[in-house]
Amino acid sequence: MTKISRRKFIQSSVVAVGASATAALAASCAPAPTVDTKPAAVVAEKIALRYTHWGNEDEKASTGALLKKFEQLNPGMTVEQIHIPEAGDPFLQKLTAMAASKTLPDASLFPDNNAIDWALNDMFLDISSEFVGDHEKLEAIQFRTPDGKLFSASVANEIMAIWYNKDVFDADKQEYLPIKGADSMQWDDFLKLAKFLTVDAKGNRADSANFDPENIDRFGFQMGLWFMPVNTIMRSAGGDWTTRDYKKLTLNSPESIYGLQLISDLMNVHYVMPKLTAGGGISDVSTDNGLLSKKIAMKMDGQWVLETLAKVKKESKLNFGIGVLPFVKEKVTTSIGGPICAFKASKHPAEAAKLAAFVMDPEQALAVIQGGLWMPNERRWYTDPALLSKWIDNDVHPKEYKSAIVDYALDYVTHPLWGFRAPGFNGFDQIVGPALQDVWQGKKTAAEAVADIMPTAQAYFDKEVLPLMG
Known about the structure:
By secondary structure, this protein is an alpha+beta fold. The chain has helices at 57-73, 88-100, 115-119, 166-171, 187-197, 227-236, 254-268, 287-293, 306-316, 349-359, 366-370, 380-383, 385-392, 401-411, 418-421, 425-440, 446-465; strands at residues 24-26, 42-44, 47-53, 77-83, 107-109, 142-144, 150-153, 158-165, 199-200, 216-223, 296-302, 320-323, 335-336, 340-342. A hairpin with a 5-residue loop joins strand 6 (142-144) and strand 7.
C-alpha cells in the first residue's frame, strides 16, 4: 500500500503497535520461611477500552447506551466513552494530539475525509474480515484505499433529504413534497415553491413585486454549505469535484460551476435561503428549531436529524414531513457516515476490533437505528421485510420514511463521495472552501471564484492526490 509523505500527513509520528496480555493480580504469599501450598488467588482485571465519537447530546446519550450494551454482553471489558462534540477539524485535532502523545483510544468514529490518509499510514487495524457474508456493508459507504483494500465502512448509511413543516404547507395550501425519487421535483419547480413559502415581515412572498428581501420573516428553504450538501447539488447538475474514478479534477466543468451558482442564487438572487454572514458563518438554525419556529419551511439535511425531530414532534407537536431532493439534471442523493476504526496502537487489538465490529453491527446498534440517528449499513436491512420492520415500524419513523428514505437511499446514491475512495480531500477543501465563501456571499460568481483557484487546486490535486491513486 502506498504511503503518504510524512511531511504531508497530519500525524507527526506514527504510533507503534502496542500489545499486552490481560493483567492479573496475584495474592501475596505468606512470609518465609512458612510455605503456603494453596494456590494464589488470581483476580482477573477487566480489559479497559476507550471509544471516541462526536455528536450532539442526543447522539452522546444513544452512543453511551450502545457502549453499555457492549459491556453487558462482554463482562470482562469496560468502555470509557470520550465524547468530543464537534466533528470535522476539531475532532481530528484531538485525535492527532492523542496520537502524538500516544494516548489514542482503542476505537473511534473517525472523520470521513481523513480516514484514507490515516489508513495509508498504517494507523488502523485490519477489520475487513468483519464485513463478509450478512455483514457486507453497502458499496457506497465502504472505505477503500486506492489499491482496493477495504479497511472500514460507515457506521451508518446517512443520506440527504428534505425535511419540512407540514403545517406551513397546509396553511399555504401546498401539496406535500414527493416521497419517491421518480417523482422528485425539477429544480425550477422547487425554486418556485421555495419562493412562495418565503415571506417578508409584511406577509409579501418572494415571488411578489412588493417583497422586501431585507426583512424576511420566513425562509422557504435552507441547506448547509459544507461539502456533502454542496456536492449533492453539483452532482444533480451533472458535475462533481472529480470524475468517478477520482483521478481527474472536474471542479471547473460547466456542470460543476452551474451547480455552485444555483446554491449562491438561492441566497443572493432569489432570497429564499438565509445568507452567509460577512464573518463566514451561515445564518443557520438547526433543522428542528427552524421547522418548529416556522422560520424555515424546508431544510435539506441528513437522515440523522430524524432522532431529534422525532423528539421535538413528541414534545412540541412538530408536524414534520420528509421529501426526496429536487433535481437539476440528475436525480441523485449522496450518502455519508463516519467509519468506525480500531487503532493499531491499542494494547488490546483483538478487543478493539471486537468493539468496532459491535458498534457497526446493525443488530447490536438496533436501538440507535430505531431511535432515528442511524440507518443500517447492510443491504439486507433494507430488502428483508422482517429486518426492515424491526427498525422502521415505530413512532419515530413516519409513514413516508420507507419511500422517501429507505428506497431513495438504495436507488439514488450513484457512487461514493471523494473521501471514501481517494485521499487528500481535506487539503482540497482548504483551497476551495475559502473561495466558495465569496460565492455564497455574492461577491463573485462561481465561474470567477473557480477560475481564481483552479491553478492552485489542480496543482494540489496533481501533487498530493493523483500520485496515490495508482
